Prior knowledge:
By secondary structure, the protein is an alpha/beta fold. It folds into 2 domains: about 1-25 and about 105-195, P-loop containing nucleotide triphosphate hydrolases (Rossmann fold, 3-Layer(aba) Sandwich), CATH 3.40.50.300; about 40-105. The protein has 11 helices and 5 strands. It has a 5-stranded parallel sheet with strand order 2-3-1-4-5, with helices on both faces. The protein is globular, with a radius of gyration of 21 Å. The model has no long low-confidence stretch (mean pLDDT about 95). It binds dephospho coenzyme A and adenosine-5'-triphosphate. Dephospho coenzyme A binds near residues 31, 35, 66, 70 and 115.
Amino acid sequence: MRLVGLTGGIASGKSTVSNLFISEGVPVVDADVVARDVVKKGTGGSKKVVKAFGNDILLENGEIDRARLGHIVFTDPAKRQLLNRLLAPYISSGIFWEVFKLWIKGSKVIILDIPLLFETKMDQQTSPVIVVWVDPETQIKRLMARDGIPEEQAKNKINAQMALDQKKTKANIVIDNSGTIEETRLQFQKVLNQISRPLTWKEYALSRDGIFLLLTSAVVGVLAVRKNLP
Length: 230
Ligand SMILES: CC(C)(COP(=O)(O)OP(=O)(O)OC[C@H]1O[C@@H](n2cnc3c(N)ncnc32)[C@H](O)[C@@H]1O)[C@@H](O)C(=O)NCCC(=O)NCCS
Ligand SMILES: Nc1ncnc2c1ncn2[C@@H]1O[C@H](COP(=O)(O)OP(=O)(O)OP(=O)(O)O)[C@@H](O)[C@H]1O
């Protein structure tokens, strides 16, 4: 099974690219969806967040007021770190569970759409890592339009993450989503071909599965030889 990392900046187009993967039948685990599930009313995640941030962040129906919590954490780095620290274990086990279910179903390639892939070091579990890049002017325009927020708020959200240009330098594959959706689709097709081909022997040998297989074979081999020794 191959876990492919998909990341980028806020509103750079990760969901847009994820949807292209889904339309080609490649399953995607979306960390934002997992992050929403783990703070639903009554969950352990929700209780932790309310304990740390107070009842003020709750809506009348008992669900977390995401806009309000977002406003707090996107303007205060210490509060953001606190929220990240509280939710990280729930989010990573949620992602693990989604991957496990897909693995049981026999999925050979799974896309992990994780906005904070590098920040949480989850890039170490994925290969290759795809970064969806967009030029800064387009990013801010799309973010303001999508979330209906003013420029200052959009900048706060962008600055809450590792700089997109830095993410680009860490990528194995970059999709430039500054142009039209059609231009992105063309780049996507090439990436799809790239990740759908089987691993070469060298890639397999260097992958964790390959190393595991090699070590297991070595141990089994040694045990078998020792058993037959006089
Ligand atoms: C702050 C919250 C309440 C805002 O909720 P909201 O519904 O407005 O936004 P949504 O969840 O759809 O996130 C939108 C985008 O914001 C960015 N973002 C979300 N959380 C963070 C964060 N902690 N740090 C930096 N950027 C973030 C991501 O690019 C994400 O795609 C929410 O994002 C949250 O609970 N974040 C903490 C959990 C987390 O780390 N999520 C990211 C998954 S790796
Ligand atoms: N190539 C494009 N041309 C025009 N609009 C686009 C393009 N790609 C994405 N968009 C729009 O930009 C916005 C952000 O895109 P998208 O939601 O895919 O980003 P994202 O990286 O998943 O965001 P987030 O980090 O918040 O989850 C959306 O409104 C989307 O419709």
